[in-house]
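Human: I would love a firmer grasp of how sequence relates to backbone shape in proteins. Take your time, and here it is.
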Amino acid sequence: MIKLGKIQELIVDRLAPQGVYLKSIKDENNETVLLPLKEVNRGVEIGDRIEVFVYRDSNDRVISTTKRPKLTLGDIGFLEVVDITKIGSFMDWGLEKDLFLPFREQRGRLKKGREYLVGVYIDKSDRLCATMNVYDMLDINSTYKENDKVEGMVYNINPDMGVFVAIDKKYHGLIPKQKVFRYFKLGEKIEARVVKVRSDGKLELSIRKKAYKQMDVDADEIISKLKSNGGVLMLNDKSSPDLIKKQLQMSKGAFKRAIGRLLKENKIEFVEGGIKLI
């Protein structure tokens, strides 16, 4: 069977002026696909085997090519937007015909010339398309463990759940909303730490270090904020978590640990309603 969207080895069934027609090696249903003449090597004969990728050309005909696309069916990866239209965008995947990303499969506003994480699927019209909804295409069988460092890309943001991250372009990752202390952008590449491997195999992440290591970073951030704010910051251990998060992009617990250290080091002092640089 000839498989749309896949690289496969097919056999030359017959020669024609426009190229050669290829069929499945098992030849289950006499289905053939054209390999255009410009891609046919000299001396090709009936019975020869050729490795090709099968897709649809600009006229929506099933066709094959010896070129290798950047992504095949089921793959996830970064592709560049080369054109934007009212019905969707087109992405460069290394073939003459660009890969279509329907408007309904987009997340956020795309920009021409930028790369985005997409997956390749077959739509209801039996055409290969791209989607930014890669959740169902990601795997849960990673080898990462708690406290491992990972790299990934933000592909969805849900205020009620958190920031969804595709790790290594193939694994499920989530920064839970309780650990989201700054603004993230769709398509943003991040480094994170695995804080938990859930029972379903999905990974919970944090972009912050372990508490005892993060404390130094947070203390430096508070000192920097104090200096840029005239030496005074209207935050203290009684401030609301939301206010601390808004001003410092850290949790209240992290803030209290950091100011505790700064107080011991005699670098700050409490004033009415906040803290002051000594």
Remarks:
- The chain has a mean pLDDT of 92.
- The two ends are 76 Å apart (CA to CA).
